[in-house]
Amino acid sequence: MNPNELKEQLSQIIEGKLTLSIMIWGPPGIGKSSIVHQVATENELDFIDLRLSQLSPTDLRGLPVPRENAMGWLPPDFLPRTGKGILFLDEINLAPPAIQGIAQQLVLDRRVGNYELPDAWHIWAAGNRKEDRASVFEMPAPLANRFIHFDVASDFGSFRKWAVGNEVDEKIISFLAFRPALLHRQNNGSHAWPSSRTWAMADKLLKAGLSIEPAVGEGPAGEYLAYTSVYKKLPDLDVILSGKGERVGYPKEASVRFATTIGLGLRAKELTALLNAFRWLMKKGGAEWVQLFLCNVFDQAEARGHLGMIATAIREEPQMRKFLSEYRELDQAA
Question: What pLDDT does 213 receive?
Fold first, then answer.
């Protein structure tokens, strides 16, 4: 599944009040931890992130202490006692077998030593796979059998939605729409390689006027720089958004078309601009470019809480209503 689908599944589990233990598998850098944290925040749940690989057995089980001629366990203070939330065991399979054995008791019995997890808390975990070249331990079968498992993979549509909502630079979104294979590509020969996480880092470097190479690696950074040269060839997007683009032609070069279409989608923040850009693309471009434009518009509207603007645009523009209806029918047929 992709990150958006994972988030939807996790949200439904919360809504259904299912205290099932969950294991999320996926390559590093695709946002597993941030998705879980976002689900917790949106559902007003507390969130505790435990990196089991950084703990010793006594850190999780507690310290042995004498109690009236018997030995007891003094549990750690970082485990929850009240309320409701998500106890997130991140990088669980980076932890050595001794720690995973204690985690197994927590996952199965919802208790460890003298500690018991409150009823309203969920236990979720995440980890990388061996094929991701992560230094992981094999998860014991009894522990794995205590979880329901979700496998998540990198996906540009999910990244685009996140990027639009977090004001990631338009050029990064446009470049990755043109070269989606570079959203996530592990590189044996470089310490830096592209992933959703490192593109988010690249955005911060870019806004500070710095090279993005330390975040995503030399090759992807070079391709990005080559791509951004197309911005010198863009038509005047403000003219199109203002409704005066009748004499503005649609670019012939594919990379310039991507940049133009995505730029219009990200800048169409008001109803009039949205309708002007849509009408121009319908006349000058084609269905695939209108689809790309609307994907960015929908993501932006959802991120800013402006879905009402989309509904108004559909009511006011018959062509948009017809296009969306036809596209839905084609999508279902496929």
Answer: 93
What is the DSSP track for 288-330? HHHHHHHHHHHHHHHHHT-HHHHHHHHHH-HHHHHHHHHHHHH
CB neighbour burial string for 181-194, b if at least 16 within 10 angstroms, e if fewer: ebbbeeeeeeebbb
Among 135, 136, 75, 67, which residue's Cα sits nearest to residue 105?
Answer: 75
Residue 154 has which token pair? 């990198």
Non-local CB neighbours of 252 within 8 Å, separated by 6+ positions: none
**Measured between alpha carbons, how far is 212 from 199 in angstroms, rounded to an integer?**
8
What is the spatial distance between Cα 310 and Cα 205, in angstroms, rounded to a whole number?
33
d(CA 193, CA 114): 44
Task: Give this prediction's pTM.
Answer: 0.74
129, 136 in Cβ contact below 8 A? yes
Provide the pLDDT for residue 331.
42
Residue 32 burial (CB < 10 Å; 0-12/13-18/19+)? buried
d(CA 221, CA 197): 15
pLDDT at residue 134, rounded to an integer? 56
Q: Which residues of the chain have pLDDT under 70?
A: 130-137, 188-189, 326-334
Within a 13 Å sphere around the CA of 286, how many CA atoms are in the beta-carbon half?
6
Please give the Cα distance from 82 to 240 (Å, whole number): 56
CA dist 23 and 88 (Å) reads: 10
